[in-house]
Amino acid sequence: MAKPSSSRSDLRNLNFYYLIIALVLLNIILILISISIGRFRIPFSRVLSSLISKIIPSFGTPNTTFDTVIFTIRLPRIIAALLIGASLSASGASYQGIFNNPLVDPYILGLSAGAGFGASIAILLGGNYLLIGAFAFGFSLLAVFLTTVIAHPQKNVSTVTMVLSGFIVSSLFTSLISFIKYYADPYTKLPSIVYWLMGSLAQVSMKEVLLILPFVLISLVALYLLRWKLNILSLGLEEAKLLGENPNILRNIIIGIATLLTSLSVSVSGIIGWVGLVIPHLGRMIVGPDYRKLIPTSILLGSFYLLLMDDLSRVISASEVPIGIFTALIGAPFFIYLMKFSKYKWS
């Protein structure tokens, strides 16, 4: 009797592996396309030649102009888009599992606004990316703490209560950001803060990418290793205790990792909203609610999605449009859809 069930399980696992391979290939194809397109178009053959020449120095004929555009301008922002998309998506999926709530993400929780406030202070003080990252992380933790405290006056917290709590915290930090913008120097600090808050990868350098790369990779690996424990946490605190876990410690660890990923993203790109809400739900539509499959799927989908949005921001008009505008145009209607159809089966 167990054989048919085992066969179906093996088939599902095989299909999942095929899905992961397909998503990896799609990301690679989009990376090559992203290097080629832009206001300064680079032939596809030249892209491949330049990339291969970095591995095999004797391959092809070097072209200083093309190589400068590829390795100094485009490749850093492509890598940043992949890292940030993966970070925000994995964070959103983790928060939804921890809070057992389908409408939670770093943006809805007020975490992005808190990180934005911290980063705005750092910009106002003239800090470098290390200071911006530190301030963003600190105020991200504060935002999560405030949202949780406001939403938990009683034992059972509804979806609406969590969303409203996040809205309150987000409004608070948005007001504080406006206060900083009011007092910022209108010729130096204010333009930087305003443009940064809209979310953009236009000014990303390889130095910033290399700075966040090890922290992002370690955090993503940690979430991947803990993905099966998210299945336990999504059952509820009491059920997790019955299964032998310490849910409070586990929650705090995952919240810390997810918050670090979000704050690192905000410190580089500014506030890019809705990614952590849209992508995990798309992942659930494809692979279901099992976090063992959802976390890796969300990471790859998030990378592809944000890189695609960045490509649109670069090519849709003569002047670059901040990427946060595109993610909001897609994310807000998607959020309305989820609120409208509250019976959407996410767990």
Descriptive notes:
- With 347 residues, this protein is mostly helical.
- It has a single domain, classed as ABC transporter involved in vitamin B12 uptake, BtuC, CATH 1.10.3470.
- Helices cover 76% and strands 0% of the residues.
- It is built from 14 helices and no strands.
- It has helices at residues 2-36, 44-55, 64-98, 111-124, 129-151, 159-183, 189-197, 206-225, 227-233, 237-242, 247-269, 275-287, 291-315, 323-340.
- The mean pLDDT is 85.
Q: Would you identify the CATH architecture?
A: Orthogonal Bundle
The CATH superfamily turns out to be: ABC transporter involved in vitamin B12 uptake, BtuC
Structural class: mainly alpha
* Helical residue percent band: over 70%
Topology:
Blueprint: H1 2-36, H2 44-55, H3 64-98, H4 111-124, H5 129-151, H6 159-183, H7 189-197, H8 206-225, H9 227-233, H10 237-242, H11 247-269, H12 275-287, H13 291-315, H14 323-340
Structure described in brief:
The chain has 347 residues and is mostly helical.
List keywords for this structure.
single chain, 347 residues, mainly alpha, ABC transporter involved in vitamin B12 uptake, BtuC, 14 helices, globular
